[in-house]
Every structure is written in structure tokens, then in C-alpha cells.
Write a structure and sequence with these properties.
The protein is of the alpha+beta class. It folds into two domains: 53 residues; 139 residues, Nucleic acid-binding proteins (OB fold (Dihydrolipoamide Acetyltransferase, E2P), Beta Barrel). It is built from five helices and seven strands; from the N terminus they run αααβββαβββαβ. The chain has a five-stranded mixed barrel with strand order 1-2-3-5-4. A hairpin with a 6-residue loop joins strand 1 and strand 2.
Length: 201
């Protein structure tokens, strides 16, 4: 009787002794390793994010401008972020050209008079509207030299609303922003032969 009663109890004690997680020191070591692994993973994710941002700083500009754009009432047609009474002429190299809804995006690297460079994020109308005015996705390519008339941002940052793009091959493209009805369907009534804005320095 005593031997039978003690048998299961002794077996349970043996099983508990063999379970490493019954040892408080082992449990603490396991938790500590898990914390280290989590911190290492978080560090790697953070550094990867930093590397991406350093590699593509213009994408941050696009995201920021798109956020500002959508926060404005009637954002799809609002130009409140830009000084529509001011026209600035930018001369530079295409860094990125995005032909997509709801707005096209042109990223241009502009060299200033002092030798420094700036990246300008320029927003255009939708591909549907622009195609009616003679635009094509293949018109602009990364590395192209362009001259662009834009309505600059009111806050002084390197953002703008496209008005006219002058390509190296002589083609001139005007943005149809604000055009509706026949004015949109019929294309631009006038295309400038040269930039009309104040040269950016």
C-alpha cells in the first residue's frame, strides 16, 4: 500500500525535476534571451527604415505632400497649398516620374546658383486629364533634363503644382489643372514657347 501510494508521487517529483522551466534561474535566463532577441529585431527594423529613408528621401517628400493634399477640404481639386499667383521656373534632372491616379508626380533635382542641389516634389493632374492634353507616360524618363514652370508651395518648401514642362526634344506639355468640359476635352488653347516663371536661384 505504502509503496503503491508513494510510487506515483515519486514519479511526479522526478518529472518536475527534469522540467527545466521549473527552475527559476532557467526561466529568468529564457526571458532575458527573449528580451534581447526582441530588442535586436526592433533595432534591425529601425535601421532598415533609416536606410530606406536615406536611399529614397524624395519618397518622404511625396508622402508628406500627399498627406497635406488629402487633409485639405475637397483635396482632389484644391490648390490651397500652392501660391497660384506666383510662377517659378525650375531647371533640373528628372529623379522620378509617377504616372498614376489620383495625381501624377514629378521629382526634379534642381541645381542652385551656389552649387547646392534640391529635390522638388511636383504634383500634376490625373493621367486621364493629362492624356487629353497630349501627355503620355513615356514623355518623361528618369535622367531627362527638363525646365518646369510651377506654382510653388506657400510655406517655402520644395513642392509645387505643375503648370508647364519643357522637354529637351522641344516638346511642351501643359497641365490641365482646373480645366473642365470643352476646355479639358479640346486641349490647351495656348502653349508657351519658353518658360514664363521667375528663375529659381
Amino acid at each position: 500500500m505504502n509503496g503503491g501510494e508513494n510510487g506515483p508521487s515519486q514519479a511526479s517529483a522526478t518529472r518536475r525535476a527534469r522540467n527545466p522551466f521549473d527552475n527559476p534561474s532557467t526561466l529568468e535566463l529564457t526571458r532575458d534571451n527573449a528580451r534581447k532577441d526582441r530588442k535586436h529585431l526592433e533595432s534591425e527594423l529601425y535601421m532598415n527604415n533609416v536606410r530606406r529613408n536615406k536611399t529614397r528621401p524624395w519618397k518622404i517628400a511625396i508622402v508628406a505632400l500627399a498627406t497635406l493634399w488629402t487633409q485639405t477640404a475637397d483635396a482632389h481639386h484644391s490648390f490651397g497649398k500652392f501660391d497660384m499667383a506666383k510662377l517659378t521656373t525650375l531647371t533640373g534632372t528628372v529623379r522620378e516620374w509617377t504616372w498614376a491616379n489620383p495625381h501624377t508626380w514629378l521629382i526634379v533635382v534642381v541645381k542652385k546658383a551656389n552649387g547646392a542641389t534640391e529635390q522638388w516634389a511636383l504634383v500634376g493632374s490625373s493621367p486621364n486629364m493629362m492624356s487629353r492634353w497630349g501627355w503620355n507616360a513615356a514623355d518623361i524618363k528618369v535622367g531627362d533634363k527638363v525646365v518646369v514652370d510651377v506654382h510653388p508651395g506657400r510655406d517655402g518648401t520644395a513642392i509645387g503644382s505643375l503648370q508647364t514642362v519643357f522637354l529637351a526634344n522641344g516638346k511642351v506639355l501643359a497641365d490641365p489643372a482646373g480645366s473642365t468640359g470643352q476646355a479639358l476635352a479640346g486641349g490647351p488653347s495656348h502653349l508657351p514657347t519658353k518658360p514664363e516663371g521667375q528663375p529659381y536661384k
